[in-house]
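Listing S7. Sequence submitted for prediction.
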Amino acid sequence: MAGFRSLARQVRDPRCDLALRRYSLRKCLERFAPYGHRATWDHLCSRAGFGPEDRSPDPVRLVAALDELEEARAVWLAYEVEFAERRKKEKHDGLRRPGSVDDWHRLTWGGFGVAWCDDPAVHPREPLAEVLRRLIAALEREPGSTCPVCGGEQLAWKYDLDHEPSAGPVCTDCGILVPRPVLTPESLADARRARLLVSA
């Protein structure tokens, strides 16, 4: 099974058939897809300027999409290195029980679904790397009451998400499943009430 870097080389290789280059970009999303596979694909296509169903996109646009994905992956991998070093130090210092951020991180190891978007057509518009920087910054500070990605104040509790956890606070502006550790208990309670009001 090819890794992310070898797939990225195929996307960039002008000697490869265009269909293979497109396919290789899609396969990259099996290794790293911050919004989930379908939403990340939709995001990359819209930002690079080709359609999700376009079978022969401009190779320059394919590479632009890959560039954005690689930059975001570098941001996330750097965070994972810092996270692993912090946990190692905590364990050395006797802190064996992981916190809520650690529980969330365990579900997103490798970068899949770190900013899950259950609706593939609703996702942040900013570059992936910027979205991840904002999310990481939120994970490293005290919990707040708004979406860490777009600053949206409308969070609604959604059930039956195609992700783990299968329920949680979703930003109604940018569509991400907001990690619970970045929100105050009051904000989580408000999101649950928003869900109850919607379904009542």
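Caption to Listing S7: primary sequence and predicted structure tokens for the chain studied. The helical segments are 4-12, 18-28, 37-48, 59-92, 100-107, 128-139, 185-199. The beta strands are 155-158, 168-171.
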